[in-house]
């Protein structure tokens, strides 16, 4: 490293900008009382940097402690939403908090205008100006829903209501209730916000929109997206708050496109154990990082390593997954 580069690096480190953050998860005493908070606004729940969430834990396990710290202290999970995830958020709100959805959603109209050559188009300057003006005049807190997404939401909910078991888990359940607890082994304060929780029946369910709800697709999807880790993190929180582990833990998956087929998948004992083991593994790593204020990345020893590719890379039968859009194509 040149002297100039070294000086620049030292200057950046001394600034310690990345350490001036929104806080890290905290450890709490054994007398901390686990509790539920009903009707806690989603923004306030996600803005709490002092208690660990399942999303944060999954970042640590999927990437590295350095990635967790970077994301967590910058509050990247607060107020940011990728376009391809927007529908999932809207569907969650419509199914789990229907009154809030009804009171805040506004259906986006189709904006059209004439081009310079006199053709009617949604991409013309006139159409774009109309859209810009419409958005500028929206009441504060409006939730804009496109006609396409509204049709998807309507179709998905109708599919769920036609599913006997799915309706059963919704009846009498708490939705989007916020819970806070102390992780017993590490003392770290944690928070959960399970989608569907029936305390009397001890039933815990996560709601997911998906490209395909079939077992052949959603089984691997469950592991790849670490839904089993989230669910067991929730289940552990439920146990600490209520004193009981949920008897039934499941995922309600509904497809994004017609016919909006849905499926209720119950977690097997093996899957639950796998999820719980990963939760405990992540919590132990988190405790070590907090205690030492050390947040390693991929190669903490600074040495180069030989990379190994998976065995399926040497076959011609391996499918190609477009992970960004959850699509499966032959390739």
UniProtKB/TrEMBL annotation:
Domain Putative exodeoxyribonuclease 8 PDDEXK-like: 62-300
One Pfam family per UniProt: DUF3799
Gene3D superfamilies: 3.90.320.10
InterPro entries for the chain: PDDEXK-like_dom_sf, Put_RecE_PDDEXK-like_dom
The protein's name: Putative exodeoxyribonuclease 8 PDDEXK-like domain-containing protein
Organism: Sphagnum jensenii
């Amino acid at each position: 490293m040149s002297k100039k580069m070294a000086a620049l690096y030292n200057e950046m480190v001394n600034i310690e900008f990345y350490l001036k953050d929104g806080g890290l998860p905290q450890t709490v005493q054994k007398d901390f009382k686990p509790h539920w908070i009903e009707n806690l606004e989603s923004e306030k729940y996600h803005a709490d940097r002092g208690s660990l969430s399942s999303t944060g834990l999954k970042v640590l396990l999927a990437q590295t402690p350095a990635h967790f710290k970077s994301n967590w202290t910058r509050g990247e999970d607060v107020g940011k939403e990728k376009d391809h995830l927007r529908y999932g958020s809207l569907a969650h709100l419509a199914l789990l908090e229907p009154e809030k959805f009804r009171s805040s959603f506004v259906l986006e109209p189709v904006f059209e205008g004439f081009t310079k050559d006199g053709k009617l188009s949604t991409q013309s300057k006139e159409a774009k100006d109309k859209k810009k003006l419409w958005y500028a005049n929206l009441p504060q807190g409006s939730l804009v829903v496109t006609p396409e997404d509204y049709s998807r939401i309507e179709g998905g909910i109708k599919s769920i209501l036609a599913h006997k078991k799915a309706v059963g888990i919704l009846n009498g359940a708490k939705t989007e209730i916020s819970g806070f607890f102390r992780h017993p082994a590490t003392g770290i304060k944690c928070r959960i916000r399970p989608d569907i929780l029936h305390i009397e029946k001890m039933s815990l369910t996560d709601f997911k929109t998906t490209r395909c709800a079939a077992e052949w697709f959603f089984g691997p999807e469950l592991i790849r997206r670490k839904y089993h880790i989230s669910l067991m993190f929730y289940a552990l929180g439920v146990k600490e708050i209520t004193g009981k582990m949920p008897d039934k833990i499941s995922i309600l998956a509904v497809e994004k496109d017609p016919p909006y087929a849905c499926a209720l998948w119950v977690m097997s004992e093996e899957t639950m154990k796998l999820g719980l083991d990963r939760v405990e593994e992540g919590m132990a790593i988190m405790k070590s990082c907090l205690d030492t204020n050390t947040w390693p990345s991929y190669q903490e020893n600074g040495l180069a390593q030989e990379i190994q590719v998976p065995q399926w890379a040497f076959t011609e039968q391996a499918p190609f997954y477009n992970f960004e859009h959850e699509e499966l194509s032959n390739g």
